[in-house]
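Quick review question:
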């Protein structure tokens, strides 16, 4: 059973075991409830047979049954709900750990709101199913089989009259499950699309308003809501129709027993007490099957969420070992990579970025410069070829180990809605205030930080919204100073800065790059003329490698890039 629960409902090992135990206890709770009816039947039979025992005997049976049922109900509650909350917690932690181990490419293929929905809403839905639908479905199933067998053994005629309509109703629900699942899946994905539309609307308010897209955006969101509403209605119909038909079939049980028992009573083939017992039992069985059908409907509703969780678990993570790294030359040999099978971005790239040197990568837009940085840092894994650090293929190095040795400063800086101090401390958690402030001074950002309302304790807003672009860049450089990793990767960090900020950042970078393996991607060729090595790329391939002087003599592409850079610097708006 545990294996079935794990594969069908995405539970952990402990969660599957807990649900199975809760179902067993719930089964005995249902048997306990039936025991009260059985005691009443025994008492009625004894009255009719004039063989009533002492009242204390029946009261004793009731008392023992009541005590057992009380204990079972208490255990049922504890085992079910305690296990539910623990499983929901374990699931969220497992998903979070899984997400941490996924390659960056996964996040480019999936919407972030989708991942958040999986962690929060999907797990909440599974949590409710674990606590209500799953144990109840399993317990009522066992209860239905057990009681049906007993009823058939006691009187097969009344037993068939009771069981047949129930089985037909249950079969109707079971055989329409694929239709129900299909419509709930469609509604699930349409709901996700609607959530993404809302998120995009909130995130892109500046563009929507500045380009006069408010009416068009409102219409698009309204269309998404209308589609979701229609699918919701169809999903409800797909679930409600079989359930209503099934309920109608099961109601025939009472009529079947009444008609059959009337004939049997006339010929004395059955005692009245048994007829009454079967009628009472059939009501209980109808309730049990109805509860099972409701549970099935909820489990069918979970289908898309469970598949989503299964897909996340099945996504390959980046493997690797905690290898010691002592030398930090970065060697690329015939590296190939594409974001999709038919779109190769990096094609047979080979060069070496040596320790204690600065290597610049230049080339036209879209030639694969920034992608190379992401491959070196293993934010993506290459398709073929090798990237080696200290002789080790980066694919053999655990990402945590590799990230400890690499500092990133990208053009699109990501900051947290926390204090300036906390944002810098990300470079090295546990750093002292003095170390954080020293890193800020080296990054030329101490002065503007101290002018903030609360200095280093100032909250900077979501993604640093209260800071300018240059200030955000310098915070990122301060992180790199604090981390002091032996490999430094810089990606177009001065592309959108004013002159004052660019000068401050260049001064900070000159200090930061000392004694490190540095790879810089830059469109501003003037700033990289003095580096140790320049790699010129074109259409995903290496066009030439050398110093500024060497490339001016030997690379026509580099000369064109230099000329375009000078023309850009000299450009004036008319």
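Suggested answer, residue by residue:
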């Amino acid at each position: 059973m545990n294996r079935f629960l794990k594969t069908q409902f995405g539970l952990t090992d402990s969660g599957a075991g807990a649900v199975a135990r809760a179902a067993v206890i719930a089964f005995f709770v249902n048997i306990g409830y039936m025991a009260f009816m059985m005691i009443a039947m025994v008492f009625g039979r004894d009255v009719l047979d004039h063989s009533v025992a002492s009242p204390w005997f029946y009261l004793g049976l009731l008392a023992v049954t009541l005590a057992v049922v009380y204990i079972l109900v208490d255990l049922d509650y504890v085992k079910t709900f305690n296990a539910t909350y623990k499983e929901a917690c374990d699931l969220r932690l497992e998903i979070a750990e899984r997400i941490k181990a996924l390659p960056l490419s996964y996040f480019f293929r999936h919407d972030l709101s989708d991942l958040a929905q999986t962690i929060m809403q999907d797990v909440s839905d599974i949590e409710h199913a674990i606590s209500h639908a799953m144990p109840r479905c399993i317990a009522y199933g066992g209860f239905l089989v057990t009681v049906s067998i007993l009823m058939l053994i006691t009187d097969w005629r009344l037993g068939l009259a009771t069981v047949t309509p129930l089985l037909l109703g249950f079969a109707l629900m079971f055989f329409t499950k694929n239709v129900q699942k299909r419509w709930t899946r469609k509604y699930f994905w349409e709901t996700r699309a609607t959530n993404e539309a809302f998120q995009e609307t909130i995130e892109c308010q500046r563009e929507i308003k500045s380009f006069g897209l408010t009416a068009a955006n409102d219409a698009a969101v309204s269309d998404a809501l209308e589609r979701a509403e229609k699918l919701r209605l169809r999903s409800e119909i797909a679930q409600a129709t079989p359930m209503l038909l099934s309920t109608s079939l099961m109601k025939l049980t009472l009529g079947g027993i009444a008609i059959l028992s009337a004939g049997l009573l006339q010929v004395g083939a059955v005692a009245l007490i048994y007829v009454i017992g079967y009628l009472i039992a059939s009501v209980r069985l109808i309730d049990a099957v109805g509860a099972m059908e409701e549970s099935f409907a909820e489990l069918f509703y979970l289908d898309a969420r469970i598949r989503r969780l299964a897909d996340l678990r099945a996504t390959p993570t980046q493997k690797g070992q905690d290898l010691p790294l002592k030398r930090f030359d970065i060697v690329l040999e015939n590296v190939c990579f594409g974001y999709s099978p038919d779109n190769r971005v990096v094609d047979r790239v080979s060069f070496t970025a040596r320790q204690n040197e600065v290597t610049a990568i230049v080339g036209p837009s879209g030639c694969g410069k920034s992608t190379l940085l992401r491959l070196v840092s293993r934010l993506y894994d290459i398709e073929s070829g090798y990237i080696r650090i200290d002789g080790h293929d980066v694919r053999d190095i655990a990402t945590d180990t590799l990230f400890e040795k690499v500092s990133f400063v990208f053009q699109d800086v990501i900051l947290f809605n926390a204090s300036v101090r906390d944002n810098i401390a990300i470079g090295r958690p546990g750093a002292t205030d003095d170390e954080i402030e020293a890193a800020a001074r080296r990054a030329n950002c101490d002065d503007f930080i101290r002018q903030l309302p609360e200095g280093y304790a100032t909250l900077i807003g979501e993604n640093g919204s209260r800071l300018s672009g240059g200030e955000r860049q310098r915070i990122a450089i301060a992180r790199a100073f604090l981390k002091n990793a032996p490999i430094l990767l810089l990606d177009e960090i001065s592309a959108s800065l004013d002159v004052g900020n660019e000068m401050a950042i260049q001064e900070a970078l000159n200090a930061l790059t000392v004694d490190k393996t540095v790879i810089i991607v830059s469109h501003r060729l003037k700033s990289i003329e003095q580096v140790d090595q320049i790699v010129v790329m074109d259409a995903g391939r290496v066009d030439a490698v050398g110093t500024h002087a060497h490339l001016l003599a030997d690379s026509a592409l580099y000369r064109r890039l230099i000329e375009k850079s000078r023309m850009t610097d000299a450009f004036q708006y008319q």
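Why it works: DSSP finds 20 helices and ten strands in the chain. The beta strands are 330-340, 343-353, 358-362, 384-389, 392-393, 406-410, 487-491, 517-521, 533-538, 541-546.
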